[in-house]
TrEMBL record:
<feature type="domain" description="Acyl-CoA oxidase/dehydrogenase middle">
    <location>
        <begin position="124"/>
        <end position="207"/>
    </location>
</feature>
<keyword id="KW-0560">Oxidoreductase</keyword>
<dbReference type="InterPro" id="IPR046373">
    <property type="entry name" value="Acyl-CoA_Oxase/DH_mid-dom_sf"/>
</dbReference>
<dbReference type="Pfam" id="PF02771">
    <property type="entry name" value="Acyl-CoA_dh_N"/>
</dbReference>
<dbReference type="Pfam" id="PF02770">
    <property type="entry name" value="Acyl-CoA_dh_M"/>
</dbReference>
<comment type="similarity">
    <text>Belongs to the acyl-CoA dehydrogenase family.</text>
</comment>
<dbReference type="InterPro" id="IPR009075">
    <property type="entry name" value="AcylCo_DH/oxidase_C"/>
</dbReference>
<protein>
    <submittedName>
        <fullName>Acyl-CoA dehydrogenase</fullName>
        <ecNumber>1.3.99.-</ecNumber>
    </submittedName>
</protein>
<dbReference type="InterPro" id="IPR037069">
    <property type="entry name" value="AcylCoA_DH/ox_N_sf"/>
</dbReference>
<keyword id="KW-0274">FAD</keyword>
<dbReference type="Pfam" id="PF00441">
    <property type="entry name" value="Acyl-CoA_dh_1"/>
</dbReference>
<keyword id="KW-0285">Flavoprotein</keyword>
<dbReference type="InterPro" id="IPR006091">
    <property type="entry name" value="Acyl-CoA_Oxase/DH_mid-dom"/>
</dbReference>
<dbReference type="GO" id="GO:0003995">
    <property type="term" value="F:acyl-CoA dehydrogenase activity"/>
</dbReference>
<feature type="domain" description="Acyl-CoA dehydrogenase/oxidase C-terminal">
    <location>
        <begin position="225"/>
        <end position="369"/>
    </location>
</feature>
<dbReference type="InterPro" id="IPR013786">
    <property type="entry name" value="AcylCoA_DH/ox_N"/>
</dbReference>
<dbReference type="GO" id="GO:0050660">
    <property type="term" value="F:flavin adenine dinucleotide binding"/>
</dbReference>
Length: 371
């Protein structure tokens, strides 16, 4: 078993890193944080027209490049490293994956090509007022009226919900959990942007009051597809967290080498050495967990259900520790708005809670292995 990335995958990493360094420096990140949309449309067009990143893991028959989770892991890791502001995670890790996991070939042929080109932004709406990410928390309902459907309920923490062209809504029907797609300009729907700890990832609350929708797949048969989508999104988030943690380690080490105190670099003091060494261990272990989960996802084997919650739990804690220690090593300046350390800290904390916190995923892991 070889966990090393191929030459082509490493070339992809180099291309994405160059793009992020050019188009997503922290000055750009800060600028997009202050906007309502939260991303630069021109950068988004270049990302798709020149790099084709939205098409990466979509099958060729639906206008994609036909790659898989390993290539996405490379991309998400580099985006996490740069705190990239854009609807890539919502469209690719959530929306596209939900459609791909469905049994609706017509919906795939209809929706995926425009997602692959980046023309259509799509997201997934699951969580409700109780903040739960499991399907038992779904109370939003979808009702069939003649040959159409309407949705009633409220969804919270919808990533890029205010800018998505299409929203995949998880709702409860008479036969069970179903997926439906709602157009952003549909009537009887209210979309409200919300302020969160992490301004680099925009979220919204969406209220449905008899909102017309289109059913995806078989009514009441979407539970498995949604669970798999959430695991795939968790693996993508783990890769993003690895990228962010790696960047925190780089920032801390660079500062420890250059900051002079008592006539010597602070990196020469044992306490700082220990902090950096501990973070390095966390980052390297997180890489192993994320890469293993991505490999299992690409192989579509039985290990995926175990490795996905493991990666999400471990990488969440590793990123948070790396971001917190980065601030500690920087000292007073690390707490200021002007320094970038707090941007990573906020992303780390918000990501730790996204799709459920570490305790939730450890409990899922324990149940899956029979503990």
């Amino acid at each position: 078993m070889n966990f090393a990335f191929s030459e082509e995958q490493e070339e992809l990493r180099k291309s994405v890193r160059r793009f992020m360094e050019d188009k997503s420096p922290t000055s750009s990140v800060r600028a997009q944080m202050e906007t309502q949309e939260g991303y630069d449309r021109e950068v988004w067009d270049i990302l798709n027209n020149q790099l084709g990143l939205c098409s990466l893991a979509i099958p060729e028959e639906f206008g994609g490049a036909g790659f898989g989770p390993l290539e996405l892991t490379v991309v998400f890791e580099e985006m996490g490293r740069a705190l990239f502001c854009g609807p890539y995670f919502s469209s690719v890790a959530l929306g596209a994956n939900a459609i791909l996991q469905s049994d609706d070939e017509v919906a795939k042929a209809d929706l995926l090509p425009s997602i692959a080109s980046g023309e259509t932004l799509v997201t997934l709406a699951i969580t409700e007022g109780d903040g739960r990410w499991d399907l038992d928390g779904i109370s939003t309902t979808a009702t069939a009226i003649d040959s159409s459907w309407v949705i009633n309920g409220e969804k919270r923490y919808v990533i890029d919900g205010s800018i998505a062209d299409k929203i995949i809504v998880v709702a409860r029907t008479t036969d069970g959990i179903s997926m439906l797609v709602v157009e952003s300009d549909a009537p009887n729907m209210t979309i409200t942007p919300i302020v969160t700890l992490d301004s680099t990832r925009k979220m919204a609350t969406i209220e449905f009051n008899g909102t017309p929708a289109r059913l995806i797949g078989t009514q009441g048969a979407s539970a498995r597809a949604i669970e798999t989508t959430l695991d795939l999104a968790g693996v993508a988030l783990a890769a993003e967290q690895v990228g962010g943690a790696s960047r925190c380690l780089e920032m801390a080490v660079d500062y420890a080498k250059s900051r002079i105190q008592f006539g010597r670099p602070i990196g020469s003091f044992q306490a700082i050495k220990h902090k950096c060494a501990d973070v390095l261990l966390e980052v390297e272990s997180a890489k192993s967990a994320a890469y293993y989960a991505a490999w299992a996802a690409s192989e579509q084997n039985e290990e995926f259900e175990i490795s996905a919650p493991l990666a999400k739990a471990f990488c969440s804690d590793a990123y948070f520790k790396a971001a917190a220690e980065n601030i500690q090593i920087h000292g007073g300046i690390g707490f200021t708005w002007e320094h970038d350390a707090h941007l990573y800290f906020k992303r780390a904390k918000a990501s730790q809670l996204l799709f459920g916190d570490s305790s939730y995923h450890r409990e899922r892991l324990a149940q899956k292995i029979g503990l």
